[in-house]
Amino acid sequence: MPLGCRAGSRRSLTMAPQGLLPSRMALRGMLLGLLMVSCFTFCSSHQNSEFALTNPEKSTTKETERKTKAKEELDTKVLEVFHPTHEWQALQPGQAVPAGSHVRLNLQTGAREVKLQYGDKIQNNLKESKKGKRLDINTNAYTSQDLKSALAKLKKGAEMESSEEDKARQAEVKQLFRPIEELKKDFAELNVVIETDVQIMVRLINKFNSSSSSLEEKIAALFDLEYYVHQMDNAQDLLSFGGLQVVINALNSTEPLVKEYAAFVLGAAFSSNPKVQVEAIEGGALQKLLVILATKQPLATKKKVLFALCSLLRHFPYAQQQFLKLGGLQVLRSLVQEKGTEVLAVRVVTLLYDLITEKMFAEEEAELTRETSPEKLQQYRQVHLLPGLREQGWCAITASLLALPEHDAREKVLQTLGTLLATCQDHYRQDAQLSRTLASLQAEYQALAALELQDGEEEGYFQELLGSINSLLQGLR
Fold first, then answer.
1. From residue 182, how far is each of 56, 179, 281, 345 by CA, in Å?
2. Domain residue ranges of the chain, discontinuous segments joined by +
3. CA quadruple 205, 211, 214, 215: dihedral sign
4. How remote is the C-alpha of 225 from its chain's centroid?
5. Which CATH class is domain 174-378?
6. What is the pLDDT of residues 246-267, one digit of tens each?
7. For residue 383, what are the contacts with CB-CB under 8 A and spacing of at least 6?
8. Mean pLDDT, to the nearest integer, of 127-147?
9. Beta bridge partners of residue 105, listed in sequence order
10. pLDDT at 184 over 70
């Protein structure tokens, strides 16, 4: 180079083309190096972590941690479900991809794209959070029509199952019990007939009313009939075919046993059965019963007749009116005064006590409910029982019954005396025998009540009787 400098200008111009070639090569190398550095820097700043060159073991560990963290984040929040199609679509951040979808990374745009796998039957799962859990629901497998059809089949299956259970239960019952038609057929072969209660009562009435039946057969028919008429419906059915009137007419029989068992049937039929009571009054039963009690009859017959009379009068004010009009109190007074009728006397006193308290309760109930003109109350007000008892001498008759030795009889007499106290107070104060009897009973029951207290009975039977006596004595002062 120094020689070239010292040479003339022509020499320098001549040598320039030869020195220019190395310069250009150096310049190109510098430019290429700068370009590579720029590319390396650009790629380093825009590279994806998924394509970074890392240690395989460290990369696997980091990938696992990243997926675990991503799964926990998905579990803690509700993700929007992306519904892919058969075309590539961009997946937005925070969107969940159904299982089985085809996912790729677009290297040109850096975005993830999703589409359904071609030819496969992929089901989309709808994930929703509920109590910290995600529920995958198939959103593409079934249409609304499919769901309706499935529900219809489910309901039909339940009905079929229920029907099968019913059939199984019916089959089990059939194994345990036989149909009534088969039983009737078998009984018919054995000459045994299955009858209803009404059919049995008709047969018994026909047997009793038949002239060819003996006395024992008639009594047996009445005895069996009494069992059936205890039921209210059967007693009312007795009216439907005229059986009640047949039994009422049997009270006119000359056979005491027929009267006794006819009254037994009537007493059972009258009990708390207003419809039968009304038919009995219209059929003349009250008169026939009073005639039997007023005439000489066996004690057993009068017991049953008195039972029928009590059943007819209780809770039936119209019958009580007719009883007073027909002289029923005189009939009972004569019955009580007969010798050997102490058992009947206690029953008569009990009947009078029931009739008195029944009327009192009806009046008290009407006063509490402020009903002044109900039909039943008007009927009770027409029953003048207490004045009739006073006029017929029942104040003295009832007091004389305290001499009975049985405690049960005394209890019923004391109850009746208590109800008659307001009506018979003047008579009782003048009755010295009653005062002595009450004083004697007071001393007797004081001793018995003391024994009860010693035994630890604070509310004993004899203490109640003593209380009734003390109340009477206080009322007489």
1. 89, 5, 45, 55
2. 174-378, 423-476
3. positive
4. 36
5. mainly alpha
6. 999 999 999 999 999 999 999 9
7. 317, 320, 321, 324, 355, 359
8. 54
9. 112
10. yes
Whether residue 249 contacts residue 222, with contact meaning beta carbons closer than 8 Å, is answered with no
142 alpha-carbon distance from chain centroid: 44
Q: Which residues neighbour 226 within 8 Å (Cβ) at sequence distance 6 or greater?
A: 261, 264, 265, 268
DSSP 219-287: HHHHHHHHHHHTSHHHHHHHHHTTHHHHHHHGGG-S-HHHHHHHHHHHHHHHTT-HHHHHHHHHTTHHH
The structure tokens 């109900």 sit at: 374
- Mean pLDDT, rounded, for 8-19: 40
372 DSSP 8-state letter? S
Q: What would the pLDDT profile of 29-72 be if each residue is shown by its tens digit?
A: 677 777 776 666 555 554 444 444 444 444 455 555 665 555 55
Q: Per-residue DSSP letters for 279-345?
A: HHHHTTHHHHHHHHHHS---HHHHHHHHHHHHHHHTT-HHHHHHHHHTTHHHHHHHHHHSTT-HHHH
Give the whole-angstrom CA distance, residue 265 versus residue 342: 24
d(CA 340, CA 331): 16
Amino acid identity for residue 422 in this structure: A
